[in-house]
Amino acid sequence: MPHDTIVAAALGLLEGLTEFIPVSSTGHVLLAGHFLGFDSPGRAFEVLIQLGAILAILGVYAGRLWTIFSSAPRDPRARRFIAAVLLAFLPAVVVGVLAHDFIKRVLFETPILIAAMLLLGGIVLLFVDRMAARPRYLAAEDIPLPVAAGIGAIQCLAMIPGVSRSGATIVGALLMGASKRAAAEFSFFLSMPTMAGAFAFDLMKNRDVLDAAALGNVAVGFVCAFVSAVLVVRWLLGYVSARGYGLFAWWRIIVGGAVLLGYGMGLVS
């Protein structure tokens, strides 16, 4: 099996394992790909394999999505929740379209920045997770429109690789009064339009640089991301409800700190 195919499979597994936990899947995949010498034309691979994670969350939440949309015509709570997710999605559309080229050509190519964001984000997540504030919103569907708009604005920070889309939205939701479970679930639902939009836009922008080999690697990464993401989504809510986000915060600090130390000592480049 070609080296790039093996690496694509490993990166796909890594994407699925990290997409929905607040550790920055893109940051992990970019760092791993950089140190493994993986060639990604237009840095499209790292975005396109997220389709596997999108389909995983759609599969796991198919029943709940059906209930929400089928009841929306007669249920104000369902309509408000759909509006909240779409409202939270809008800031990422604007920033993603305007800053796409800068993000891909500059931020995606700066491993030290990614590591620093992993470390800093871990410290922030650890602090927020230990806050003893009593949650006001116990379910994702209870999050009101103004709070959803704030979460959407905070999600834009995740355009910087290493910050973490799920990490930014979860921290934002926790700070605005959501329970740990509600924060994770709202992040799940918000990921669907956000990641689907990023996938479609990136595919359109990079369609001319994706040859058969690149598309083959994307397909391998997609399948692996789907399988590992299904496992994570089914496990995550129960874990964070009982134990919070401390484990993920420490993981970010260790990975980010190790990479920065490696650069500081000249061990990696």
Give the SSE map.
Layout (H helix, E strand, L loop, with lengths): L2 H16 L6 H11 L9 H4 L1 H11 L1 H10 L4 H30 L5 H19 L15 H11 L9 H11 L4 H27 L5 H32 L2 H19 L5
Helix pairs in contact: 1-2, 1-11, 2-7, 4-10, 4-11, 6-8, 6-10, 7-9, 7-12, 8-9, 9-10, 10-11
Description:
There is one protein chain. This protein has helices at 3-18, 25-35, 45-48, 50-60, 62-71, 76-105, 111-129, 145-155, 165-175, 180-206, 212-243, 246-264. It has 269 residues and is mainly alpha-helical. It has one domain. Helix 4 (50-60) packs across helix 11 (212-243), helix 7 (111-129) runs parallel beside helix 9 and helix 9 (165-175) runs antiparallel to helix 10. The protein is globular, with a radius of gyration of 18 Å. It starts with a helix and ends in a 5-residue tail after the last helix. The model has no long low-confidence stretch (mean pLDDT 90). Pfam families: BacA (PF02673). One of its GO terms (cellular component) is plasma membrane. GO terms for molecular function: undecaprenyl-diphosphatase activity. Its EC number is 3.6.1.27.
